[in-house]
Specification:
This protein is an alpha/beta fold. It has 46 helices and 14 strands. The strands form five sheets. A four-stranded mixed beta sheet has the order 1-2-3-4, with no helix packed on it. Strands 11-12-14-13 form a four-stranded mixed beta sheet, covered by helices on one side. A two-stranded parallel ribbon has the order 5-6. The termini are far apart.
């Protein structure tokens, strides 16, 4: 073959590139076309076929002449190799698939043929059986159950559940069995041949299968025989009732005296014995109320359970088909089946079930059966059944302590898995049990299940769990004083965790009431805490269960968590309910010396949790984080620290309040030593710092003076924001001194919040209708604030009343005095807020129980002694009354007598028909205290608070308790500190610190009584109280100015001292004699001449 190639080359030098064309001439045709040239743009092929003389043209079809390159760097041989390997793999897999399909088809055919043959054989064997023994086996005799007899093997072979006639034949076998057993008297003899013992292996196999067939038959036909299952076992029913006959056969063949009993029970257990019974119970549950006595079903269940318990003591591993998972999770099992309840504890079923569940704490919830209905989740039913029965079980004196610990662990794990609908109580109710008057149980659809869950708050369970957890059996010999043993710590830890967990689904009031009055939990836990502290050793308990892996102890604080988790809220609750005599005199439940040590321990624990150890910010979204942990991660270490920090902080605040009422330890004992330095204080001022978070959650750890500095800083920053003239113009008001409340109410009550926070200037009008002299630079406003508070909060005005100690609180009958009484309370809240906002101290001694309303807190019994001492003593008398209650004739009602009008109100719905007795007297006492201290003044307090919060933010005063808040309002009661005032005084006009007139002046001020000193302070500053932090923080600083030249005549010195309260300035003439200076000064400060005196 000759080839002619012509090419036209590309001219690269030209700006217009021309394509390269290749012409290929093939003389004698071609068998295959070689690879086209890559250097040309396209090519044409011409060839001749045979003897043809003309050329035939062939176009390559490829316009590009660019060479194709394999970027993978592989040759064509390599590509062919990979394709070959891939193809080989695919073919190998196809052959394997065909082979498996063939083998599967052979097996299916084999099984099908086998079943077909068996079905044919069943028919044949059934015919032989009917021929030999009759249609239903009625011709069988006593030898039918011998090893050599074909009677029983044939029945076991051909029996089919779906065949109703086979059911009759199975019932016939059971009747003959019972008849032959009655005749022979021995179950073993029934299966023996002569005197020789039977082949136990063969007999055992037959009995296992017969028992299983009986149970399966009852289960399969349970809908048809449901009524028969509820009938009691009698001789007559044994012959007529198929259900009783089959179940009794199982009980007979598994008799504990038979040599094969253990093997049969174990076999039935593994064949889902209790799953079968659960289905049977579910079938008959709707008809239980129509039958009395013990049904054959319940009898069989109890009997087989007892035998299983006896045989299964050596192996207590939990399975999904166990009694504990299948039967104990059945809804209301003990309410529906009384016989089971009777023997459940006495026969050891409770102990066996508790040990079995405890063996699989990690995952036993996953083994529970599917829920029978939405109203009855299996895990909730298991928890309810255990709570209902365990109170009686724990009451038994011989109950081992470890069973109480196991029960606590199991219950806690079940509570962790409660559906959200059942966890109806918030964290606040867990650590703040003072909200106690309106609590209700969880809104469960089924009332009976709700009642079951509330068993957790009953005194029976709590009392005996605490008794067992703190029993002497747990203490090692000689260790009642030393550190706790490991098992003692584990027992106490698990019980504490259970007690805390119960608060998530039961009313906290009921739990803490049971703990306070049915147990000595506070004393027990304090003894444990005291021993750990003395030994400097806190055993760390790792909780067993689903979340055990998540527990990573990192310090001794973790050892404190579990005991403090219950101790703090329990003791806190008791402090709400005990009276002053019990706390201070009887020193119950803890001695005052113990409380001093307790404060030290709690303070250190709280400082470690909030400051030393990392923890989520208490002011951010911590609550949302913890709720997520509670519902998804269980009781993790982070969750426990969060809850302990809150309850510990609350308890320390309460102890601080008790110490404020009657001091039994230094107030500084509540401060953390580390929180006193300036470095810590500098961090507290930053709102996003960890120190600020500590201030919010545990303010008492920081000294009072530091908190006041923070408070004043916050006020200064707020005033700078609102005292901008361009934004908020200066407000001017004109008030009459004799109508100051009404005029101020008309002028200020309708002002918006921003205007109230801005500058307000006052002009006074005296009793003659003439404006008083003086320009308000701040001093007139101070005088206005003192005057209006003195008039409005006067008890003669009718809005406030006073306690026997002359402390003010809202008048419950204010509506009878003023038509707009609630608007006036809101206005007075604004007035008090404005005074605090401007840093003006006002002399208003509020009752502590009213100040608690400014902090949105609840009042309790011990606060009643301040309001009504006589009522308080009467309630204490009732608390300890031991005589006949019917003689008192008390009901849940209370009488109000205001301004001669007597009204009777019910303390609770239907209270007029509920008589007070020994059982409900504590409830009555707290309802009376709640009515007097909270309910009666609720409207007035809420309106006062609403006005107060327009100027004072809640976070500003949350760092102070009620007694400290009174100091913020009125200043210190210690009187004028003359030395401090002199140290921070300035002088002008020719006076100096060592000037003779100044020396005489300070000597005179020191000799004045406290009343005159307060009048002097009001004369020069506009307020009778000094700054809380001392006169160093008085702005502007106190200054004494010479009001005349030194050489002035005596006639010119006859004038009185004057003041400019807006500048805290005293204008003092240079008097020559001390007696004249004193007389002039006293006349000036006692004249009460307002701003007209000059």
């Amino acid at each position: 073959m000759a080839t002619h190639v012509c090419a036209r080359r590309r001219h690269r030098s030209s700006s217009h590139l021309k394509p390269t064309i290749v012409l290929i001439f093939l003389d004698n045709g071609f068998k295959r076309l070689v690879e086209s040239p890559r250097s040309c743009d396209f090519f044409l092929v011409f060839f001749k076929l045979g003897s043809q003389k003309s050329w035939i043209m062939f176009f390559s079809g490829e316009p590009s002449t660019r060479k194709k390159v394999d970027l993978g760097g592989r040759s064509s041989k390599e590509r062919d190799r990979s394709k070959l390997l891939e193809q080989a793999r695919i073919e190998r897999e196809n052959r394997q698939r065909v082979r498996l399909e063939t083998q599967s088809a052979i097996k299916l055919q084999k099984v099908f043929r086998g079943r077909k043959i068996i079905a044919v054989e069943r028919q044949e064997i059934r015919k032989q059986f009917c021929t030999v023994y009759g249609e239903f086996g009625e011709s069988a005799n006593v030898n039918a159950f011998k090893e050599s007899s074909k009677y029983l093997p044939q029945v076991l072979f051909f029996f089919q559940l779906k065949d109703r006639t086979d059911l009759q034949r199975l019932a016939g076998v059971c009747r003959i069995l019972h008849r032959c057993l009655f005749e022979s008297g021995s179950l073993v003899a029934l299966f023996s041949t002569g005197d020789s013992l039977p082949n136990l292996h063969i007999v055992e196999l037959r009995i296992k299968k017969l028992c299983l067939l009986c149970l399966q038959a009852v289960h399969y036909y349970r809908e048809y025989i449901s009524k028969e299952l509820l009938e009691p076992v009698t001789e007559r029913s044994l012959s007529d009732n198929v259900a009783i006959l089959l179940l009794q056969t199982v009980l007979t063949l598994s008799d504990k005296n038979a040599p094969w009993a253990g093997m049969v029970i174990d076999f039935l257990y593994k064949k889902r014995l209790f799953s079968i019974f659960r289905d049977l119970l579910q079938t008959v549950s709707s008809s239980l109320g129509h039958y009395g006595g013990t049904s054959c079903l319940e009898h069989a269940l109890v009997s087989l359970t007892l035998r299983h318990v006896e045989e299964g003591q050596s192996s207590i591993s939990l399975e999904s088909w166990s009694f504990a998972t299948q039967i104990l999770s059945f809804p209301l099992i003990f309410q529906r089946f009384s016989y089971l309840r009777q023997v459940f504890i006495s026969k050891g079923i409770w102990a066996f079930s508790i040990r079995q569940l405890a063996s699989s704490l990690q995952d036993f919830v996953k083994l529970l059966p599917t829920n029978t209905s939405v109203q009855f989740p299996a895990n909730v039913c298991l928890l309810g059944n255990l709570l209902e029965i365990s109170g009686s079980a724990l009451r038994v004196q011989e109950c081992p302590w470890e069973l109480a610990v196991y029960f606590a662990s199991i219950s806690r794990c079940l509570i962790e898995e409660l559906p959200p609908a059942y966890r109806t109580f918030s964290e606040d109710s867990v650590e703040a049990p003072e909200v106690m008057m309106d609590e209700e149980g969880p809104p469960v659809t089924e009332k009976s299940l709700e009642d079951q869950l509330l068993y957790a708050s009953k005194g029976d369970i709590l009392k005996h769990m605490v008794r067992l957890a703190f029993s002497d059996a747990l203490k090692a010999p000689g260790m009642r004083v030393g550190p706790p043993s490991v098992r003692e710590a584990e027992a106490i830890g698990e019980v504490c965790m259970f007690l805390h967990a119960t608060l998530l689904f039961t009313p906290s009031t009921e739990v803490f009431t049971s703990l306070a009055y049915s147990t000595r939990i506070v004393s027990h836990l304090w003894s444990y805490i005291e021993r750990c502290h003395a030994a400097h050793e806190w055993p760390i308990v790792k909780l067993q269960g689903k979340n055990a892996i998540e527990q990573h102890p990192i310090s001794d604080v973790d050892g404190m968590l579990l005991p403090l988790l219950v101790f703090c809220p329990a003791y806190s609750f008791m402090l709400f309910s005990i009276d002053n005599e019990e706390f201070y005199e009887q020193q119950k439940p803890l001695r005052l010396e113990d409380i001093k040590l307790l404060v030290l321990i709690l303070k250190e624990a709280l400082w470690q949790i909030l400051w030393v150890l990392p923890i989520k910010s208490a002011t951010g979204n911590a609550s949302a984080v913890v709720k997520y942990e509670t519902s998804h991660e269980g009781f993790s270490i982070k969750y426990l620290k969060h809850m302990v920090s809150k309850s510990t902080s609350r308890l320390l605040q309460q102890l601080q309040d008790w110490n404020s009422r009657r001091q039994f330890m230094s107030p500084q004992a509540f401060n953390a030593r580390e929180a006193m330095d300036e470095i810590f204080f500098s961090q507290v001022e930053k709102e996003n710092s960890r120190a600020y978070d500590l201030l919010v959650q545990a303010p008492f750890l920081i000294p009072f003076t530091h908190r006041v500095r923070i408070y004043t800083t916050q006020l200064s920053s707020a005033k700078e924001q609102y005292n901008v003239p361009s934004l908020f113009p200066r407000m001017r008001i004109r008030v009459r001194r004799d109508r100051i409340v009404e005029d101020a109410f008309a002028a200020l009550n309708t002002l918006p919040e921003e205007a109230l926070q801005g500058l307000i200037r006052v002009t006074f009008v005296n009793e003659f209708g003439v404006e008083e002299a003086g320009v308000d630079g701040g001093g007139l406003f101070k005088d206005f604030m003192e005057s209006i508070t003195k008039a409005a909060f006067d008890i003669q005005y009718g809005l406030f009343k006073e306690t026997p100690d002359h402390l003010l609180y809202p008048n419950p009958a204010s509506h009878m005095v003023h038509d707009e009484h609630l608007q006036y309370f809101m206005f007075l809240g604004k007035i008090l807020g404005k005074a605090m906002f401007e840093g003006i101290l006002v002399d208003i001694p509020f009752a502590t129980f009213f100040l608690s309303k400014l902090k949105k807190k609840h009042n309790f019994l011990h606060d009643l002694s301040s309001l009504d001492p006589e009522l308080y003593r009467s309630l204490l008398f009732l608390k300890h009354y031991e005589e006949d209650w019917t003689q008192l004739g008390l009901y849940f009602v209370i009488e109000n007598n205001e301004y001669g009008e007597q009204v009777e109100e019910e303390l609770i719905p239907g209270g007029k028909d509920i008589q007070v007795s020994k059982d409900n007297v504590i409830k009555y006492i707290h309802h009376v205290a709640n009515y007097r201290l909270n309910k009666q003044i609720r409207q007035q307090s809420s309106h006062f608070l609403r006005g107060f919060q327009q100027l004072i933010q809640t976070k500003w005063i949350d760092m102070f308790n009620e007694h400290e808040l009174q100091l913020l309002i009125s200043g210190s009661l210690e009187g004028l500190n003359v030395d401090d005032l002199r140290l921070n005084a300035n002088y002008s006009g020719g006076y100096s610190e060592n000037h003779p007139v100044i020396d005489m002046f300070w000597e005179i001020i020191k000799t004045l009584d406290s009343g005159l000193q307060q009048k002097f302070l009001k004369f020069v500053t506009g307020c009778s109280r000094g700054p809380l932090l001392g006169f160093k923080y008085l702005e502007p600083q106190f200054c004494i100015q010479r009001a005349a030249p030194e050489d002035v005549s005596d006639d010119m010195l006859d004038r009185l001292p004057t003041s400019a309260t807006c500048m805290n300035l005293l204008k003092l003439p240079p008097y020559k004699r001390k007696d004249i200076l004193k007389a002039k000064l006293l006349y000036a400060i006692t004249a009460d001449a307002g701003f007209d005196l000059s």
